[in-house]
Structure formats: structure tokens, C-alpha cells
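Bench log, entry 3. Co-assembly request; chain sequences pasted below exactly as received.
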Amino acid sequence: MIKIKKLNKHADTKLLSIWWFAVLTVIAGGVIIGVTIFQSAKVDVRVLESDILSAKIINCVLDKGYFNSEFVVGKMDIFSVCGLNKELLTTKGNYYIKFQLNDIAGKEIFPLMKYGNNALEGDCLIQQSLISARNFARCSQESVSGLDSNGRKLVLSIMTASNKDFRLETTR
Amino acid sequence: MNIKNKKGDEVVLETIIFIVLNLVFFSMMIFFVVRAGSSDVAIEEANAKKIALIIDAMEPKMEVNVSLEQVYNQASKNKFTNVPVYVNGNTINVKVKDGVGSGFDFFTTLKPQLFFDDENKLLTIRT
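Structure output for the full assembly:
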């Protein structure tokens, strides 16, 4: 009887160690999967980028509450005046800028201006409908009021989007 | 008496081996997580984006100091002695080891100048 008991105890220990190592394997697997997911996540700065872009344009066209007079007549090249890289913003497909200037009654002051990748506007509209899509562009929408040189109140509505992703450097 | 001692020894030995193996396992896991958490690519990418966004938000004739402590520490760990941050066209590149490094474009047309304070691990950006 004593002999049998001892034998069982030994078997229990062996069984426990097998289970223990199975548990360790599961823990290790979990940690490795977790770290891999963490590592593959990218630093997403697209929202910040689109916010900075719209802030730059607003600060450039609006000075102390007054809109730039050339901007009001639709003759201002925002890229050269605001120091924005036109090639990067309009030809690479990663950005979108749209703005419109209306008077207080909603009447258009100049036609809607659009630059960059038009497809990103759709991304913005989808994001607005509370659907979170990881690879869709991140957008910034703002509306600011100011006066023209005649003291007329105008409203600038601006939408910017960025889908710029991280890349590995290949030169130098 | 002899047999009893032998069995006791075996049990103690088994327990010690079990504990040692567990310690080895958990040490390896902690080492893996700590190493993965401070990976070169993550540091390069995060800093390239941070600096590019700072440049984007800067106005002409502005000066901004950025702490590069993490970059310097990682570069020193990797025994990388070259300049860790440089501008290439309108791209900010960050490198903490030999290799491709990480780059991120800034959309402003300002030409930023970079000045390094190696002692305080600071980067000064002037536009």
C-alpha cells in the first residue's frame, strides 16, 4: 500500500511538471505575440499632421482677425505665401486640403479650393460616421471667422487630411 | 537510513532544478520584453516623426530645443558615433545604428538648421 502511494506521488510530480511547462509555453507564446503586435504598431501622427497643416493655413491667411486681401479675392497662392511644399502636398497622394470662404449668410466668396488627393475626403467622411478604419486618412476640420478689409464678416471652412506613413530611408 | 537520505537528496535536487529552470525562463522573458521595448527602429521612427512635426509647426526665425536623450543613449549602446539626426532635402532622418535609419518628410518649405549639444543630449532647430 505504501509502495503504491509513493509511486503515485512520483507520477503526480511528473504530471505537474509537464503541465507546468505547458503553462510556461503558453505564457511565452502570449508574450512573444504581444511584443510582436506592439512592435508592428506604428507611431501614428496623421491627426497631428493634419491639425498642424490646417493651423498653418489659418495662421497664414488670417492676421489679427483680418483675412489677407489677396486670399479674399481668391488670388493667393497658399503654398508659396504660407511656406508649404506644394510638390509634397499635392503630388504624392498623402495629403488633401480643401477650403471655402463664405460670408455670414453662407454666400460663396470664391469657389471651393481643393488640393492633393481627392480620395482622402471620402476617408474623412467615413471617419466622421464613427467607423474606425486603421488605414484611412486622418482629418482635421475647422471653421474660423474673420473680417475682410471692408469689415465684412467671413467664415473660412477648412478640411485637411493626412495619410502619410512611416518609411525606411533608402538614400545616403 | 542510506536509502531515505538518497531519496531526500533527489527531491531537493529536483526542486532546485525546477526553481532554477523557472528563474531562467522568466529572466529570459523579461530580457526579451525589455530588449523589444527599446528597439532601435521604434526609437528612430518616433524621433523622426517628432522632429518633423516640430519643424512643420515652426515659424520663420524660430528656435526650438529638443531632447535627444533616448536617441543618444541608444546610439551609444550600439556604439554608433555618427550624427544621429540629419536633414536630407525635406526629410528628417534619425539613425541610432549603422543601417538605413528612419526618415519622415516635413511639408514646410523652411530650411531648418540643426545644432547639437552632445553634452546635454539636446538638438536645437533653427529656421
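Residues 40-126 of chain B form one domain. The first strand of chain B starts at residue 63 and ends at 67.
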